[in-house]
Structure formats: C-alpha cells, structure tokens
Specification:
The protein is of the alpha/beta class. Helices cover about 20% and strands about 30% of the residues. The protein has a seven-stranded mixed β-sheet.
Length: about 250
C-alpha cells in the first residue's frame, strides 16, 4: 500500500492570506501546506480522501493516473470545495465515482453540488455515486475499509483504517470503541490543527497523548495551521511522531 499526503494544511492553508508570521514567510517548502487530502493506493485501486480547493494541483503533483473512489470525511469547504475537478475521472471511467461518506455529509454535498449527483447538462452521466457509510467495515476493490467515527466540534466525521494504515481527519473527540479498531496499526496519520485550546480541534498536546495511546510505531501529523514550523516540530516531537508535508509518501 502507498499513502500520499497530498495536502497537510488547515482550512486557511500555509502561508495564510494576510499573515506575515515567521512560518508564513518560511523558505522551507515543507512549510507550504495546501488543504487536507490523502491518496491511498493498493493494488489497482486508487482511493482519494477528500477534495479540497487544490485537488487538481495536488493530483497533478502526485502524477495520478486514475481514481476509483472518493472518501469524504465531512463537508467543510477545505475538504470539499474542489470536488468539481473529479468530473474528469468520471468521464475517464465512464461511470460515476463512488463517494463514501456519512449520510449527513452526502446530504450537504448534494445540496452544494447538485449537478454532480443528479441531472445535468451531460445527460445520463452522473459524476458521483453516493455510498453511505455506517459502522460496518466495507470492501471496495482491493481495499477493506473500517470506518472510524469521531467528533469535530458539532460535526460528525468519518475516517478509516485500511490494513496497517489509519488516518483521523478533523478531530475533537473519539470514543474508546473507535480507538479499539486501531489496535495493531503500523502507521497513523492524524490531524493536528492547533497548538492551543479549540472547540473543534484537539490541540497539539491532546493529539500527542492520543497518538501515544494508539501506539502506532509511526505517527504523522497533518492538517496543521500556520502556527507550526516543520523543522521546529521535527526537533521537538516524541520518538515515532513526525510532521507530514505536502507530497510525503508512506509505503506500507
Ligand atoms: Zn479541515
Ligand atoms: Zn502565518
Ligand atoms: Zn472541518
């Protein structure tokens, strides 16, 4: 399995508009973060997690040759606003792209991008095929996906485990029953958006405590805002934890 962190930034990206902070002025390319997306490849199957503003540029950078399905964690714009660019893959596949998401995420996405699901000027071709996600693991081509349900303030989010790999998108709380599904993973990608208290996100210390509890040999932080500097983080994080960066590939 190969996992590519297409985008590791928070909702506003880094550098952030109008910001003149040290990190937004950093020359380190690892401090330039586009919005959250992950590409998961296993065998002949390519699954995209989320479709942010920069998805076209991210998929070009990753030299993506195909796309079999989309997994939408939730319907916030930094995870969804680029979904129109996926039409190209529906044309190529000659079929709508399966879109795995919570029922409420499908409802919101359908409301905002009606033409991707329903009648449109292209006649019979639909672009997205909604696949509601529940509690049970599901199989899709070469992948077996175990949904991981968690909270993000008032918003419900669904991430997944696939074999030795798991990720947790935007996160403020998660039940023990969901954490048990992470036993034995080798690599965890986890959102670490803020340094300090935030009602919608765990802060850095909470993310590190959760990562220690999950105990994956390798933990990679993502969805970081502009308050984080890559080199500084790398030097201070505990053993087994590292900051991600756009384009980082993980071979599992
Ligand atoms: Zn987000
Ligand atoms: Zn800044
Ligand atoms: Zn969000």
């Amino acid at each position: 399995m190969r996992v590519t962190l297409l985008g590791t930034g928070s909702s506003t990206g880094t550098p952030q508009l109008l910001c003149d902070c040290e990190n937004c002025r950093s020359d380190d390319p690892r401090d330039r973060r586009t919005r959250f997306a992950i590409l998961v490849e296993q065998g002949d199957t390519v699954l995209l997690v989320d479709a942010p503003f920069e998805i076209r540029l991210q998929l070009l950078a990753a030299k993506a040759k195909r796309l079999d399905a989309l997994w939408l964690t939730h319907a916030h714009s930094d995870h969804l606003a680029g979904v129109d660019d996926l039409r190209i893959f529906a044309f190529r596949n000659g079929a709508p792209i399966p879109c795995f998401a919570l029922p409420e995420t499908i409802t919101t996405t359908r409301h905002r991008f009606t033409y991707l699901f329903d009648d449109n000027e292209y006649g019979d071709l639909r672009f997205l095929d909604p696949r509601p996600v529940g509690r049970e693991p599901l199989s899709f081509r070469d992948l077996t996906l175990t949904p991981l349900h968690h909270r993000h303030g008032d918003t419900a989010v669904v991430s997944f485990r696939a074999g030795p790999f798991a990720f947790l998108a935007d996160l403020s709380a998660i039940d023990d029953a969901e954490l048990e599904k992470l036993a034995g993973i080798s690599t965890l990608v986890i959102s670490c958006t803020v340094r300090h208290d935030h009602y919608k996100h765990m802060k850095l210390d909470e993310v590190l405590a959760l990562a220690a509890r999950i105990g994956a040999p390798r933990t990679v932080l993502t969805h970081m805002n502009h308050k984080f500097n890559h080199a500084d983080l790398l030097a201070t994080l505990p053993r087994g934890v590292e900051p991600g960066y756009d384009g980082l590939t993980l071979d599992l």
